[in-house]
Design a protein that fits this description.
The protein is α+β, with helices and mostly antiparallel strands. It contains 10 helices and 10 strands.
């Protein structure tokens, strides 16, 4: 076993789960990832195997058919999966954010209805906050829900849905002014709706259209889409938690889980880049010896390994903080920020070690080089993370004068 990115204090069950996932990644994901990614092909066989392994129910409580594991266990599994192919980790990430939001905020009826099928992988989740003109300013959401008897009518356009096509349940954040008078703070007039739909593209239910996959530089295989609501009718009992106006808080709670996930993905991709770099450096010869024996390359390897270790430690800390029931926005922000930035740097250093071959699609590092930038913007940019970190630090270290 590699020395880097080890986690102290794991139970026998956690170690067994991670060992199973690691073996699966080495045997079933890494050998086919680059080929599937170049074809932008959805990894159906891999997803089916993840379903058989029970990973879609990893954090869902046992009473609903899941494994009832912690966020730490989930994050470490994501780290391993992203080491194989980051797109596969994206497939389970949004699923788990929706499952977590249901577990934490759903009504009993909603939990009973959705969680057992989500644990089995029969329902796949996606969540939707962003809009075409929105960016990081969630308060600027324009999609709207209007009450009509026992239903709400939803209109608007959403953007950047991971699993938008393959999912069958989407948690959608929209503005709902019912019961919230004019002048109410924007974040207090938002509601999360649980929208069921058929997997696929086009009109997937009356009033709801998934136009098609967005073409991307990297992060291929997993479908990223728009979502268009035009007179979409949703029953009132599909308001998450049964009460309007709580959607912003519910989504932010889910995003904290998502930020730990993105940090874990950054750790996994960085680990793989280091593995590729250190392996190539021992095979490639220049001036009569392996380039790994040149001091300049050893310096790079030392920096890469230190960054992998530091990012992993922050990610584990953020996951454990959330598992303890404490507020973890500071730790999650730090972990996401550092892991994504270090991932980019480690991947680039591995790319440089490969020299001209790193530019060839025959080498795995080329794929990683295109995947790493997504982590810089997913679940909030570096600038957003620094705002969160700065504000929380000022709360913790308030000047007493």
């Amino acid at each position: 076993m590699a020395r880097l990115a080890q986690t102290a204090g794991l139970t026998d069950v956690q170690q067994e789960i991670l060992s199973t996932v690691r073996d699966f990644v080495d045997k079933e994901i890494i050998p086919v990832a680059t080929e599937l990614e170049h074809r932008d092909e959805y990894p159906q066989a891999i997803v089916d195997s993840l379903k058989e392994l029970g990973l879609f129910g990893l954090m869902i409580p046992e009473e609903y058919g899941g494994l009832g594991e912690s966020l730490l266990t989930y994050a470490l599994c994501v780290e391993e999966i992203a080491r194989g192919w980051m797109s596969v980790s994206g497939i389970i990430n949004t699923h788990f954010i929706v499952a977590y939001m249901l577990k934490q905020h759903g009504t009993q009826e909603q939990k009973d209805h959705f969680l057992p099928r989500m644990a089995a992988g029969d329902i796949r989740g996606a969540f939707s906050m962003s809009e075409p003109g929105l960016g990081s300013d969630v308060s600027a959401i324009t999609s709207k829900a209007v009450r009509d008897g026992d239903e709400y009518v939803l209109n608007g356009q959403k953007m950047w849905l991971t699993n938008g096509g393959t999912s069958s349940l989407v948690a959608v954040l929209v503005r709902s002014d019912e019961g919230h008078p004019e002048g109410t703070a924007p974040h207090k007039s938002m509601t999360t709706f649980l929208v069921e739909k058929e997997p696929g593209f086009g009109e997937v239910r009356p009033g709801l259209t998934i136009p098609g996959k967005i073409e991307k530089m990297g992060y291929k295989g997993v479908d990223t889409t728009e979502l268009i609501m035009d007179g979409l009718r949703v029953p009132a009992d599909r308001v998450l938690g049964g009460v309007t106006g709580r959607g912003f808080y519910q989504m932010m709670d889910g995003v904290e889980v998502g930020r730990v996930n993105v940090a874990a993905r950054g750790c996994g991709v960085a680990q793989r880049a280091f593995e590729l770099g250190v392996s190539y450096a021992q095979q490639r010869h220049t001036f009569g010896k392996p380039i790994a024996q040149h001091q300049a390359i050893q310096f790079k390897l030392a920096e890469m390994a230190t960054k992998v270790e530091a990012a992993h430690a922050l990610m584990v800390n953020a996951a454990r903080k959330k598992d303890s029931g404490e507020r973890n926005d500071l730790e999650a922000g730090m972990a996401k920020y550092l892991a994504s930035e270090y991932c980019k740097e480690v991947v680039e250093d591995a790319f440089r070690i490969h020299g001209g071959y790193g530019f060839s699609k025959e080498y795995e590092i080329e794929r990683l080089y295109r995947e790493a930038p997504m982590l810089l913007i997913g679940e909030g940019t570096a600038e957003i993370q620094k705002m969160i970190i700065g504000r929380r630090l000022l709360e913790e270290y308030r000047f007493q004068g």
